[in-house]
């Protein structure tokens, strides 16, 4: 049974509706709504509030619906009989998964202020982004807060539940919406936050760091959380910074909807030349559900998860081994996604983007 996500709720006025919910409900005329509702097929709203949250705060429930569809596609058996954590996986392995989103700080620039410059910044490689370091550091801080918060909740509350065993892997599933241009964050904030690998675009390489300075302060924020035993109870982080309305449009194009008014260009980061490839999403060149999803494994975990169980998801997995980082995945990762009106896309634009990234 699917959830009636767009029903009118008596206790939610028009003013309380989230801008993205309103855009999805009233503006998008493709198949985006149908795709999203299909994700909810079989989802059990255990506290009877997720539809209200979807309409008013949007991101956290949208992320949960997406994860639910990923897990269904993987054939996971999900136990909804308990109220926490968000997903209790019974097979192919006992896994406890807590979903969380990182949001813009209270005094931060609101997402609705996004300009054409913000949209076109998706077309800039890291070494040409004048705000690269401010975007990276802000993301590290916001995502750190989200991970640490869920880590404490697990240790202080979830471990007291009779159905929770410390022998079961505990995974935090994090989606970033932490600043206006979260879609450019890619792997860089999590590589720094979890492994202390801070990407320097001028050197085109990672530098080792133990901490960063929180933007606008003199406070140090520790990084490299998975380099010691302090977070060994966390088995992995599932991460995305591209799970938003553009994902739905891209999937709609991949389904071959000829009525879609937008086009999606994905910039994919390959590991051989040319390092950046441009994908114009269509039925013949689809974006898969798991594209954009990343899984960062904790080498110090006392209950690791088997990477094989996520292999069919199209997620990119990062698996540290000694001094190396093994990267596994069925497709090249999405660096950024551009979702714009179809009439704006042509071969000249695609060639310019390709040249700009690979020169």
Q: Which descriptors would you attach to this protein?
A:
3-stranded antiparallel β-sheet; 8-stranded mixed β-sheet; 28% helix; globular; 22% strand; 9 helices; alpha+beta; single chain; 359 residues
In angstroms, what is the radius of gyration? Answer: 20 Å
What is the helix/strand order? Answer: HHHHEEEHHEHEEEEEHEEEEEEH
Tally of contiguous helical segments? 9
Strand content: 15-25%
How many beta-strand elements? Answer: 15
Unreliable spans: none
Largest sheet: 8 strands, mixed
* Overall pLDDT level: 95
Strand order of the largest sheet: 1-2-3-4-9-12-13-14
Question: Based on CA inertia axes, which overall geometry fits?
Answer: globular
The portion of residues assigned to helices is: 25-40%
Describe this structure in words.
An eight-stranded mixed sheet has the order 1-2-3-4-9-12-13-14, with helices on both faces. The chain has a three-stranded antiparallel sheet with strand order 11-10-15, sandwiched between helices. The chain has a two-stranded antiparallel ribbon with strand order 5-6. It is an alpha+beta fold. The chain has nine helices and 15 strands. The mean pLDDT is 95. Helix content is 28%, strand content 22%.
């Amino acid at each position: 049974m699917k959830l009636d996500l767009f029903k009118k709720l008596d206790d939610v006025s028009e003013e309380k509706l989230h801008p993205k919910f309103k855009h999805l409900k009233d503006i998008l005329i493709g198949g985006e709504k149908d795709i999203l509702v299909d994700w909810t097929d079989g989802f059990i709203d255990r506290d009877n509030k997720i539809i209200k949250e979807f309409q008013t705060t949007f991101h956290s429930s949208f992320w949960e619906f997406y994860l639910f569809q990923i897990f269904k596609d993987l054939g996971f058996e999900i136990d909804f009989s308990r109220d926490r954590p968000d997903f209790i996986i019974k097979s192919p392995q006992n896994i406890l998964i807590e979903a969380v989103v990182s949001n813009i700080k209270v005094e931060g620039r609101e997402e609705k202020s996004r300009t054409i410059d913000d949209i076109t910044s998706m077309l800039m490689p890291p070494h040409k982004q004048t705000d690269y370091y401010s975007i990276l550091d802000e993301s590290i801080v916001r995502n750190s807060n989200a991970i640490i918060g869920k880590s404490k909740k697990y240790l202080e509350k979830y471990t007291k539940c009779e159905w929770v065993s410390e022998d079961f892997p505990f995974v935090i599933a994090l989606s970033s919406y932490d600043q206006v241009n979260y879609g450019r964050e890619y792997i860089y904030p999590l590589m720094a936050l979890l492994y202390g690998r801070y990407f320097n675009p001028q050197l085109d390489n990672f530098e080792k760091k133990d901490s960063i300075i929180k933007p606008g302060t003199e406070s140090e924020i520790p990084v490299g959380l998975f380099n010691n035993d302090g977070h060994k109870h966390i088995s992995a982080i599932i991460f995305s910074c591209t799970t938003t309305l553009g994902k739905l449009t891209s999937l709609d194009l991949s389904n071959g909807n000829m009525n879609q008014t937008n086009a999606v260009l994905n910039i994919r980061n390959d590991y051989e030349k040319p390092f950046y490839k441009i994908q114009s999403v269509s039925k013949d060149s689809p974006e898969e559900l798991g594209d954009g999803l990343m899984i960062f494994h904790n080498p110090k975990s006392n209950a690791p998860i088997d990477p094989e169980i996520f292999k069919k998801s199209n997620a990119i997995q990062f698996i540290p081994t000694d001094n190396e980082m093994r990267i596994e995945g069925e497709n090249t990762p999405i660096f950024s996604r551009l979702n714009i009106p179809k009439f704006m896309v042509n071969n000249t634009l695609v060639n310019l983007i390709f040249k700009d990234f690979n020169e």
